[in-house]
Amino acid sequence: MLERYSDRPLQGQTVLVTGASGGIGAAIVERLALEGARPIIHYCHDVAAAEALLSRIGGHGFVVQADLSDAEGSCELWREAVAFAGRIHSVVNNAGIVTEISIESSAAAWKTAWQKEFQLNLFAAADLCREAIRHFLTEGGGRIVNMASQAGQRGSAADILPHGATKAALINLTKSIASSFGREGVMAVSIAPGLVRTEMAEKYIAHDEEETVDTIPIGDMTEPAEIAELVAFVLRYSQESLNGATLDVNGGSYIR
Length: 256
Fold this sequence. Notes:
Elements: E1 14-17, H1 23-34, E2 38-43, H2 47-56, E3 62-65, H3 73-85, E4 90-93, H4 107-139, E5 142-147, H5 151-154, H6 161-181, E6 186-193, H7 199-204, H8 209-213, H9 224-234, E7 246-249
Parallel strand pairs: 1-2, 1-4, 2-3, 4-5, 5-6, 6-7
Helix pairs in contact: 1-9, 3-4, 4-6
C-alpha cells in the first residue's frame, strides 16, 4: 500500500480547508490535490476565486460557502461538507483575520474588534474542531491542522493585540485536543507561520517591507507553497507522532 501510493500519499482522503479561496488556503488546496486528496474548498464571499481554484485542481473536490463570522457558520459549513462528502478525514482551520485596533480607540470599537477576531480566529475553529472530533470518533479517526501564528507565541504588535491572543488560544486548543483524543485516533497539530507572502501580509507591511524583511534571518518572507507542503506532510498517515506539535515556519525570526 505504501509503495502503491508513494507519489500520492493523501490518495483517498477528503480534507475540509477553511478560508481556501486565496493565499495560503488556495496553496494548501492545490498541494493536497497534487498528493491525491479530495479538498472541500470553503469560501465566504469570493465564489469566483473558489470555483477557479476547483477548476485548477481538475474539479476533484467541492466548493462550500459559509460565513464564519456568524456564530452558526461553522456548524452550517460542517453539515454541508458532510452532506457532500460523507466521510471527512481531515480539517484544516486556515480561515482568519488580522484586525488593527489602537488602545486609543473607543471602548465600543475595541470590544467589537476583539469579538470579531475571536469569532473568526478561535470560536469558528473551535466549533469545527468539535464537529470534526465527534465525526472522527465514529469514523475511525482523523486529523486537525490549526493555522496559528508566530504572534501566538511571542506576542503581537501594539496595533494588532487581538491577533496574538486568538492564535495563542488556538495553539492551546490544539494541544488539548491532541492530549485528550490522541488514543482515539484524533490527531491535532498547529502550524505557526511568521510573515507569509500573501496579499494580506503585503498590505500590512507595505510602508516598511524592506525593514520588516530585514528582521527575518533568511532575508525573505515565507511562501504560501511552503506552508501548503507542510500541511500535506502533517496529513500523511505515517506522521502520527507529530500529534500535539506546534510547527514554526518563520525563517528564524522567532526561535523557541
